[in-house]
Amino acid sequence: MKLTKAKVKKIKQLLAEDKLTQPQIAKKFKISRSTVSDIATGRAHADVKGPKAPPKRPAGQRAKIAEIDPTNERILELEGEVLHLRDERNLARRQLKTAVKSQGLFQAVVEEMTDIVTPFKALPKARKPYTKPKKGEVIEHLALHISDGHHDQIVTPEECGGLECYDFPISICRAENLVDTVLKWTQQTLAPQFQFPAITVFAYGDHTSGEIHGHTNRSYFKNAFKNCYAIGQLHALMYRDLAPYFDTVNVLYVPGNHGRRSFKKDYHGAHDNWDYMVAKNAELYCRDIDNIHFTIPNAFSANIDILGHGFCVFHGDDVRSQMGIPWYGLERRQRRIMALNRAQAGPPIRYYCCGHFHKPASITEMDGELLVNGPWVATDSYAYNSIAACTEPTQLLHGVNERYGITWRLPIKLRCDYESRGPRRYKIDMMEEIG
Fold first, then answer.
1. How many CB atoms lie within 10 A of CB 149?
2. pLDDT (0 to 100) of residue 229
3. Whole-number CA gyration radius for the chain
4. Cβ-contact 215, 268 below 8 angstroms
5. Where does residue 194 fall: left (phi above 0), alpha (psi -120 to 50 degrees), or beta otherwise?
6. Could you point out which of 59, 67, 74, 257 has its C-alpha 20 to 30 Å from the C-alpha of 412?
7. In terms of C-beta density within 10 A (0-12 exposed, 13-18 middle, 19 or more buried), how is residue 340 classed?
8. Are 141 and 306 in contact (CB under 8 A)?
9. Alpha carbon of 208 to those of 154, 156, 264: distances in Å?
């Protein structure tokens, strides 16, 4: 738009009045913001005289105030408060900036992944939807526990006395075996007497070894983002394969300690954790499968109700040991959660589920039970050399009955006879980079 001298003069009048901002003036005259700035500074249309603007005090300077008595106690007190508040403000700004950089990074990556991840197509239904129980049928809810996968960890036989060989392809083999065992047990061994309309997957952390202890440099993909992307895709493949056999697949994720990004666990920002990236990636891959539902709370523990029985799910890393033995700490943790639960609304908690210790166990109280899940990896250089520990890799599967609570339970052994040959059916995108 060509500016006449009259319009330039009007613009200078508005600039002098200081009632409209430069962008507002630019919009009013349908010109660019830079053109208004050039007129204001005299770089353009300097020959057009405008009204003389009142002098402005330099930006950032305070108006002069009357002389004060520097010995006035009240003034000294107020100045001290101002300095204290300024220090608190600066500290809060630094903390907020750090938190935004950290947590905002994951949120930005998840938003970007939404456009990158191609969701899986739902497999054909393998059973008819559940309607009413037939005579003699037992209707239960299925629960699968997944924790301590450390899927990106590499363990060589040389570093642990030949007791374990583990890496990402082997963890894929064990994932295939886990799904196959779940389906064989529920759809063949227990059928037709048992029916399982729904399954809930408790995924409570340490799916990746994360950044702590320098694990990233020793991980399979040597990159934390790639590790989580691949692990999330692996989890999604498992849920996709389970979905045809159940009317509903509920997946609950809470983070573990290996995925944390802070030096120590600070109990704030559970989503600031690499396990969160695994969970969100799995959710993105399954977003087109209607009967899979994800719950990923920004919390380190979660309570869930199954057929009237309460389950409290947490990773277990914050349980304190006594004389190096965690079981006393687990008992204390269980009793305290039970006491807190009595003060909370909702169904009472009967079962407390955790992992972390790489040692499956069950501790029973009068009105509750603690279930400790096993690991995917039998041992590693730390466990073998530091505490001489080795455990058969297992994950827990059990039924939940409306009347009796947990009835049967099956610790699924993950090792399979084809681990040395590699996965049979699961293909992960990132594997192409490794070859």
1. 29
2. 96
3. 31
4. no
5. beta
6. 257
7. exposed
8. yes
9. 11, 18, 17
**Burial class, 37, CB count within 10 angstroms (exposed 0-12 / middle 13-18 / buried 19+):** middle
- Written as one string, the DSSP assignment of 250-266 is EEEE---STTB-SSS--
280: confidence class by pLDDT, cuts 50, 70, 90:
very high
Mean pLDDT of the chain: 88
What are the CA-CA distances from residue 163 to residues 80, 105, 151, 409 (Å)? 65, 39, 17, 26
52-98 residue pLDDT tens = 656 555 555 555 666 667 777 887 788 888 888 888 888 877 766 66
In whole angstroms, give the CA distance from residue 167 to residue 424. Answer: 16
Contact 256, 205 (CB under 8 A): yes
Give the dihedral sign, CA 427/430/431/435: positive
Using CA atoms, how far apart are residues 417 and 410, in angstroms rounded to an integer?
A: 20
Instruction: Measure the CA dihedral 24/28/31/34, to 10°.
Output: -20
- Residue 385 tokens read as 């050399």
Distance CA 276, CA 284 (A): 12
Fold type of domain 119-124+135-434? Purple Acid Phosphatase; chain A, domain 2 (3.60.21)
Q: Give the pLDDT score at 127.
A: 83
Cα gap 74→65, rounded to integer Å: 17
> If phi over 0 gives left and psi between -120 and 50 gives alpha, with beta otherwise, what is residue 307?
left
Q: What span, in angstroms and rounded, lies between the C-alpha atoms of 118 and 114?
A: 8
Nearest by Cα to 305 from 254, 371, 350, 337: 350
The domain segmentation of the chain, as residue ranges, is 5-41, 119-124+135-434
- Residue 143: φ, ψ to 5°: -130, 130
Please confirm whether the linkage preceding 192 is cis (ω < 30° from 0). Answer: yes
Report DSSP state, residue 227. Answer: H
Q: What are phi and psi of 250, to 5 degrees?
A: -100, 130
